[in-house]
UniProtKB/TrEMBL annotation:
One GO BP annotation of this record: response to stress
Keywords from the UniProt entry: Magnesium
InterPro entries: AAA+_ATPase, AAA_N_dom, At3g28540-like_C, ATPase_AAA_core, Mitochondrial_chaperone_BCS1, P-loop_NTPase
Cofactor dependence: Mg(2+)
Database matches in SUPFAM superfamilies: P-loop containing nucleoside triphosphate hydrolases
Annotated spans, Disordered: 459-508
Record's keyword annotation contains Ion transport: no
Gene source species: Canna indica
Family, as annotated: Belongs to the AAA ATPase family. BCS1 subfamily.
Record field: transmembrane: none
Pfam families, per database record: AAA, AAA_assoc, AAA_lid_At3g28540
Domain AAA+ ATPase per the UniProt entry, residue ranges: 236-388
Protein name in UniProt: AAA+ ATPase domain-containing protein
Length: 508
């Protein structure tokens, strides 16, 4: 310790000596230049090396400067005592920054990096087509010379990646749509966007917790799977098919996925796409870390034509190559085809960009072409089914703030609800409606009301079943009767024939 103070004192002595020489020997106008030279000499003997990262690189904005700013803002909020604060356009988070001459120490792969932020007045405005800011801002990175080969350029790559991730997390999600009704070529960019504010999350999504966890784990695995996809040579994309009756939460699931991963959503309106090449262009203009959604795929495109094709003449092209809806008018090039759609998700073009998720939804999985649902095409098929008791518990928590264990297991109301919920075949959307209507009442009253609704549904379903089975029985009975008394019908036939014969005879 003593040695440290001795060397520090001698260093300060040397510094003071040079300072006094500077003042004694050089006139004030040359002092700045001389100081710079001394500085350089010092740096030659220093064990450190320095990197200046200016805000404006020539006349262009230096991306690295902003990346460093964002990167340091993570730790600046903890380490520094005076900070600058900002909030970017479209951003929902505040960003901390270092103020003038503030320092921050960071470590990377065991090496220490010291950052200093400098703000100086721009001396004279040199000619520029673009007006430059009055202040000159820069970061100076100081690292030990021996660490240089160890951490550069990996450290800078790390900074850029972290900053991109932070920017994405701070930025609001965007929801893009291609359904503007006009020609998409007219404005160059085929997608229009709005901030995506859907509040659905996996916490609020009513479905069995075990299935939910499976989906979340799958999504996480995908988002963190860059190395895996690179190693295995697979395109970094994943497909989910959500199917189930209306109101079971397919759209809510998509919103929850986007919020969970922090991805943007591209809601593709297939009916607005006229050709396969338009579809490809749309795909090319999507960004990484996004979910591309085609809702109600069974209604968007006629995907049943492959089946209907079996009865068509053999000279026709295979149905999946045939333009959808263009068979009669021959406008083949003016439509999209099933193969175009499959290429969209699976072909080479689907890999331009990376980290993308495709989600198709349908209410009628049985109506989809087998090519679309065959294994491997969509990586995961998710059945969004009617409300189970586990899902009901989540809805009770969402709408009535009923916490786990608030009603004990022996509670009569809960027991009855658990008994009838599956039989009632009610969608989470319908349960939500009942709970919303009754949310201001006592919790037990609201649940009792729900129980009534469920019981009525069960009764109705039973009646319907009863009447349809009665109808079926009656039909069967009629068929049986018809089979058992062939003579009667023969007689009718005979009598008809008889009449005809008579007539003929009469004619003759
Ligand atoms: N599983 C669920 N969890 C939470 N809320 C749900 C769920 N399912 C439906 N809801 C509620 O019902 C509403 C409609 O649900 P959603 O639009 O997600 O259903 P959908 O399956 O996409 O229906 P459709 O097939 O008609 O498009 C949502 O706003 C949400 O409040
Ligand atoms: Mg929907």
């Amino acid at each position: 310790m003593k040695e440290f103070w001795t060397s520090l004192a001698s260093l300060m002595g040397v510094f003071a000596f040079f300072q006094s020489i500077l003042h004694a020997v050089f006139p004030p106008e040359l002092r700045f230049a001389a100081a710079k030279i001394f500085n350089r000499v010092f740096r030659c003997f220093s064990t450190y090396c320095y990197f200046d990262i200016t805000e404006i690189d020539g006349v262009n904005t230096n991306e690295l400067y902003h990346a460093v700013q964002l990167y340091l803002s993570r730790s600046a909020s903890i380490a520094a005592s005076r900070l600058s604060l900002s909030r970017g356009l479209n951003s929902s988070a505040f960003t901390f920054g270092l103020t003038n001459n503030d320092r921050l120490v960071d470590t990377f792969r065991g090496a220490t990096a010291t950052w200093e932020h400098a703000v100086t007045q721009r001396q004279s405005q040199s000619f520029s087509w673009r007006p430059l800011p009055e202040e000159k801002r820069s970061f100076t990175l100081r690292i030990k010379k021996k660490d240089k080969p160890l951490i550069l350029p990996a450290y800078l790559d790390h900074i850029m990646e972290t900053a991109t991730e932070l920017r994405r997390r701070n930025q609001d999600r965007l929801l893009y749509t291609n359904s503007r009704g006009g020609s998409m070529e007219s404005r160059g960019f085929p997608w229009e966007s709005v901030p995506f504010k859907h509040p659905s999350t996996f916490d609020t999504l009513a479905m069995d917790p075990s299935r939910k966890e499976l989906i979340m784990a799958d999504l996480k695995d995908f988002a963190e799977g860059k190395a895996f996809y690179e190693k295995t040579g697979r395109a970094w994309k994943r497909g989910y098919l959500l199917y189930g009756p209306p109101g079971t939460g397919k759209s809510s699931m998509i919103a929850a996925m986007a919020n969970y991963l922090g991805y943007d959503i591209y809601d593709l309106e297939l009916t607005e796409v006229h050709t396969n090449s338009e579809l490809r262009k749309l795909l090319m203009k999507t960004t990484s870390k996004s979910i591309i959604v085609i809702e109600d795929i069974d209604c968007s495109v006629n995907l049943t034509n492959r089946i209907s094709k079996k009865s068509a003449p053999p000279s026709d092209p295979p149905s999946d190559l045939r333009p959808v809806g263009a068979a009669e008018d021959g406008a083949a090039s003016k439509t999209i085809t099933l193969s175009g759609l499959l290429n969209f998700t699976d072909g080479l073009w689907s890999c331009c960009g990376s980290e993308r998720i495709f989600v198709f939804t349908t209410n009628h999985i049985e109506k989809l072409d087998p090519a679309l649902v065959r294994s491997g095409r969509m990586d995961m098929h998710i059945n969004m089914s009617y409300c189970s008791f586990a899902a009901l518990k989540i809805l009770m928590k969402n709408y009535l703030s009923v916490e786990d264990g608030e009603f004990d297991d022996a509670n009569e109301l809960l027991r009855e609800l658990a008994e009838v919920i599956e039989e009632a075949e009610i969608t989470p959307a319908d349960v939500s409606e009942v709970l919303i209507k009754n949310r201001r009442r006592e919790k037990s009253e609201a649940l009792a009301e729900l129980l009534e609704v469920l019981k009525t549904r069960v009764e109705k379903r039973k009646d319907k079943k009863q009447s349809s089975s009665e109808e079926m029985e009656e039909e069967e009975e009629q068929e049986k009767r018809a089979l058992e008394s062939p003579k009667e019908s023969d007689q009718v036939m005979d009598s008809c024939n008889g009449k005809e014969e008579k007539g003929e005879e009469g004619v003759v």
